[in-house]
């Protein structure tokens, strides 16, 4: 096995109660559990970097998502980058850095069938945590959404909502790297300035304008070819009539309703899907395994060339996970929110 722990217990962040709206500290608890032991074909992994993602909010409600709801008293589900410290699987030896869907536990056991399981091979000079951000699931999600689902091409106009967030800021930069005109939608002057500095062609603060559709139309007078949707709701409603013939809408998330899933916004412009033969498709990155190697190569190259600047909001310490997640879901963060353990 190759690993002798100094401790017999692990720390976990568990769900104390189901959030009502934006999560608060009392929804979470810090608990201890016995050190898990890997079974046949399994690995014991020590968490190094934990990823905070808006989709986690959906796992906290008692309703179906693409993962089962987190049970009360159970650790939260989320993407983790860790180091294999004990292994019963020769394909994943001790010392291997891996990322996969796991739990908010400082040690956890997974098998080779874990969702999103990949070996991580950091390039010299790159911080490890970027491989949970722009050089990891965030970058892969942006790449898949734009190019595999959205079929974005050089010369086209791309609009991205939540453009100062982890996926949005990455999607905008890689769309520019492929020769697109990129318009970002954000919620503050600070975020607008951030994405302008990243090279976006236009930044629209939706909180500062009474008519977001008119502002987008000014920035994209010939219409929108691809709308990378992170928020849904009123923003989606405003953009659909601005889409060009055969436009594409890759749906990465709908953060606008994550904190109030019982009262989703009724989009009134869906007829535009027929009028302009728009293709709108939700996606999960790991539905596209055949393109991930190509995507990783391009992301690494764009960082090396200075065309992709990873944005990261990094916290220190396992116990900061709930606070970091609450800040994310409150709209207070810029870039990818990560916790180093």
TrEMBL record:
Keyword Chaperone appears in the UniProt entry: no
Record's keyword terms, sorted: Oxidoreductase
TM helices/strands, residue ranges: none
Keyword Oxidoreductase attributed: yes
Annotated GO MF terms: oxidoreductase activity, acting on the CH-CH group of donors, NAD or NADP as acceptor
All copies of domain Enoyl reductase (ER), residue ranges: 21-339
Protein name: Putative NADP-dependent oxidoreductase
């Amino acid at each position: 096995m190759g690993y002798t722990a100094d401790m017999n217990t692990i720390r976990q962040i568990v769900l104390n109660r189901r959030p009502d709206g934006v999560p608060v500290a009392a929804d979470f608890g810090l608990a201890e559990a016995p050190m898990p032991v890997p079974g046949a074909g399994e690995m014991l992994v020590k968490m190094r970097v934990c990823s905070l993602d808006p989709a986690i909010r959906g796992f906290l409600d008692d309703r179906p998502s693409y993962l089962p709801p987190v049970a009360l008293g159970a650790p939260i589900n989320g993407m983790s980058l860790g180091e294999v410290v004990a292994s019963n699987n020769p394909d994943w030896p001790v010392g291997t850095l891996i990322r996969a869907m796991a739990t908010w536990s400082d040690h956890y056991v997974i098998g080779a069938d874990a969702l999103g399981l990949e070996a991580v091979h950091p390039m010299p000079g790159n911080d490890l945590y970027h491989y949970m951000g722009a050089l990891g699931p965030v970058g892969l999600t942006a790449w898949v959404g734009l190019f595999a689902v959205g079929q974005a091409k050089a010369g086209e106009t791309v609009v991205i909502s939540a453009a100062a967030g982890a996926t949005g800021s990455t999607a905008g930069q890689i769309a520019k790297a492929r020769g697109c005109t990129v318009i970002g939608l954000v919620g503050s002057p600070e975020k607008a300035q951030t994405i302008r500095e990243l090279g976006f062609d236009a930044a629209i603060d939706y909180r500062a304008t009474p008519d977001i559709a008119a502002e987008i139309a000014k920035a994209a007078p010939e219409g929108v070819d691809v709308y990378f949707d992170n928020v849904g709701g009123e923003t989606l409603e405003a953009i659909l009539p601005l889409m060009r013939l055969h436009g594409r809408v890759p749906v990465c998330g709908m953060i606008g309703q994550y904190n109030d899933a019982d009262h989703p916004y009724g989009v009134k412009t869906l007829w535009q899907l027929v009028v302009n033969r728009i293709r709108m498709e939700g996606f999960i990155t790991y539905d596209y395994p055949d393109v991930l190697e190509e995507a990783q190569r391009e992301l690494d190259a764009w960082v090396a060339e200075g065309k992709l600047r990873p944005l990261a909001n990094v916290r220190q310490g396992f116990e900061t996970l709930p606070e970091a997640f609450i800040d994310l879901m409150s709209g207070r963060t810029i870039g990818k929110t990560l916790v180093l353990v």
